[in-house]
Amino acid sequence: MKRVKVFVSLAAVCLFAAAAAVSSVSTAAETKKGKGQSPLERGREVYAANCGRCHGADGAGHTRMAEIVEPPDMTDAAWQRQRSTSRMVASVANGRGQMPAFKKKLSRPEIAAAVAYVRTLKR
Predict the structure, then answer these.
(1) Pair (105, 54) in one structural domain
(2) What residue spans of 34-107 are helical by DSSP H?
(3) Are residues 78 and 112 in the same domain?
(4) d(C-alpha 117, C-alpha 83), whole Å
(5) Domain match, 71 and 92 both
(6) pTM for the full model?
(7) 95: left (phi over 0), alpha (psi -120 to 50) or beta
(8) What is the domain range of residue 5?
(9) Using one digit for the tens of pLDDT, what is the confidence trace for 19-69?
(10) Most buried of the four, 38, 59, 66, 84, by CB within 10 Å?
(11) How many alpha carbons lie under 13 Å from residue 26 in its C-beta half-sphere?
């Protein structure tokens, strides 16, 4: 009888742990896909994960990697004025200069969100 109680208790703990794991995986997947986020919040996440290494968290391009690849200062209003949104999307998707193409890594909406976020960095 005591073995049955132990078995039932362990089974209950395992089921609870499995349910919690499934719940956290689905929550993480929803967050990863950007559900429930504004486009700018999603753009900030995409930028931080894919662009910040070279362009810097603030977009000014002051990073160790920037010393090598010399990215533009995306906070500069003149730089932003000279580039259309479609050109920026194409540059991210297809690459430009030393910047690699991201069209296989990021979806079109993710690229558009990142570009929209970059537009908010203008000084």
Answers:
(1) yes
(2) 39-50, 52-55, 64-69, 77-81, 85-94
(3) yes
(4) 14
(5) yes
(6) 0.71
(7) left
(8) 1-33
(9) 444 443 434 444 455 578 899 999 999 999 999 999 999 999 999 999 999
(10) 59
(11) 5
